Amino acid sequence: MITPVFRRIAIPFGLLVVALALGFDLYVTRSGCVAVPGCPARALLAVTTLGLLAVFVLAYLVARRTVQPLKDVAEVARRIAAGDDTARVLSSRRDESAALIDAVNQIVDSQRERLNDLVQDHRQFSTVLEHMADGVLITDGLGMVTLINPAACRLLKSTEKEALGRPFAAVVRHHSLIELWQRCRAQGREQVEAVDLGPELFLQAVVTPFRERGATGYVVIFQDLTQVRRLQATVSYTHLRAHETVLDLVCRLLLEKKKQNH
Q1: Which of 49, 122, 134, 147 falls between 20 and 30 A from 237, CA-CA?
Q2: Which residues pair with 136 in a beta bridge?
Q3: Which residues have CB under 8 Å from 72's CB, separation 6+?
Q4: Per-residue burial over 62-93, b = 16 or more CB atoms within 10 Å of its CB, e = otherwise
Q5: pLDDT, tens only, 108-120
Q6: Cβ contacts of 254-261, under 8 Å, gap ≥ 24
């Protein structure tokens, strides 16, 4: 099967050979060059020289036209690597390079769609973290904080700028939380513990290990149970008061009954 690239190369060089052959024949036979000693040799040398020059010129033009699509693809690849998601290879060619250009454009479009999906997922994830009531903190395998949401910053009395890149122990600043993280790292499974951080803060901490791309990390979730504990304390006190009231009533009735008997 004759391809467009083959025709692009073969036709110019074939025409060049035919033109040189005809020119040599006309010069030698019609100018009387055959009867002159050394003239055919000089004519052949001249034709050969012209042929070489023409070959170089044609080779340059054919190579430039053939290589240009590859240069366009390389330029688009560099633009994509630099962050330009609008880069595309534009060409009106209909040869083999057109198939290459179409394939590259399809890859670019597919990667752009995947990137847009990832950006959308990241935005949704960030929105969820931003508005979560529970604190979320993520560390790498060495315990360096890589992510923290506003709720965790509020509970730990820190800021995102202060927490990111620092050790977990320096961010939480509480031995129970540090021991819980260390226990999860040592055992390799989820750890849960209620931690009292003072009269105004009572947390349930959950540390869960995970692996991503061969690296280990830990997700730490802080659930604020301060209000729950206060409510439980209130309910217990109310129940105790109610119990005391019933006892008082029973004692009073017994006393009255005893008086009546006397």
Answers
A1: 134
A2: 221
A3: 89, 90, 91, 101
A4: eeeeeeebeebbeebeeebeeeeeebbbebee
A5: 778 778 878 888 8
A6: none
